[in-house]
Amino acid sequence: MNLIFLGPPGSGKGTQAKRIAGQLGLLHLSTGDLLREAVKNSTELGKKAKAYMEVGELVPDTLIIGLIEEKLRSGQLDGGFILDGFPRTIPQAETLKQMFAKNNKNINRSILLDVSDAEVIRRLSGRFYCPICNAGYNYPHQLPKKEGLCDNDGAKLMRRPDDEEAVVKNRLDVYKRQTEPIVDFYRKETILSEIAAEGAGPDEITNRLLQEIKRLKKV
Ligand code: AP5
User: Are 120 and 8 spatial neighbours (Cβ–Cβ below 8 Å)?
Assistant: First the structure.
């Protein structure tokens, strides 16, 4: 299966894509994770992307499309995948469609995780991660055993720079202006599913997604 997980920042795309890809044996491809790794390693891509990411703006389409093309060429997408954080603009969605058509691939479904702005702000203001093992924590529901320290390696927990409140507000704004139009793009292509992704914990949302994927496999 080739899936896209769509949704605003903090809607749970990463959490759910990781779980579902693990359970279904799919590749989880997060453009956000790839970019953060590039920034951390100060690669050419990382140097170009850093300034956009820090203020919550999108990295230029050409840089991101190049990343996806590279993954496609390497054959890593051949066994099925979940795209998390891509596409994020109409040009990205159109290029993905053309790129896949040329390679006899298609997207089976684009699944929107529906979450309110208030919930996004609540989740992202409580998000912390371990810089060593990348484990995620969230205050007040997913606390480490020792305050501020990772359960796995004792490292001091950190916040993503783009989780500062002002940047989150801009990310939400950018989502509405640049990314939300692709919800309609996939609706018109009749490959859109919408899942209510708040008011329940991650386990329940995983169940909802698995139910939907099971239903799609039968259609
Ligand atoms: P990216 O990393 O993709 O950020 P995002 O889309 O803003 O998403 P997040 O990673 O913040 O949230 P998520 O939806 O994955 O939620 P999560 O599972 O972590 O992109 C970062 C930046 O990179 C962009 O701003 C842009 O600059 C650049 N970029 C990336 N892709 C690009 C592209 N294609 N084009 C251009 N630029 C691009 O969950 C969030 C928190 O909520 C966690 O703490 C989690 O534990 C908690 N949580 C999850 N589910 C629940 C639940 N059900 N109940 C309570 N808490 C929950």
Answer: yes
- The two beta strands, 136-138 and 127-129, are antiparallel
Mean pLDDT of 123-132: 96
The dotted CATH code for 2-26+79-116+176-218 is: 3.40.50.300
What atom in ligand 1 is closest to the CA of residue 198?
Answer: 53
141-186 pLDDT, tens digit each: 899 999 999 999 999 999 999 999 999 999 999 999 999 999 999 9
| pLDDT value of residue 6 | 98
Please give all residues whose beta carbon lies within 6 A of any atom in ligand 1, as ranges. 7, 9-15, 31-32, 35, 52-53, 56-59, 64, 85-86, 88, 92, 123, 127, 136, 138, 142, 162, 171, 201-202, 205
Residue 186, classified by CB atoms within 10 Å of its CB into exposed (0-12), middle (13-18) or buried (19+), is buried
Inter-residue contact 169 to 80 (CB < 8 Å): no
Measured CA to CA in angstroms, residue 219 lies from 69, 107, 108, 216 at distances of: 30, 15, 11, 5
Task: Answer whether 157's CB lies under 8 Å from 149's CB.
Answer: yes
Catalytic residue among 71, 105, 109, 127: 127
Q: Is the peptide bond before 60 cis (omega within 30 degrees of 0)?
A: no
Q: Which of 19, 36, 123, 171 is catalytic?
A: 171
Ligand 1 atom at minimal distance to the Cα of residue 160: 11
Q: What is the distance in A from the centroid of ligand 1 to the CA of 70?
A: 22
Question: For the whole model, what pTM was predicted?
Answer: 0.96
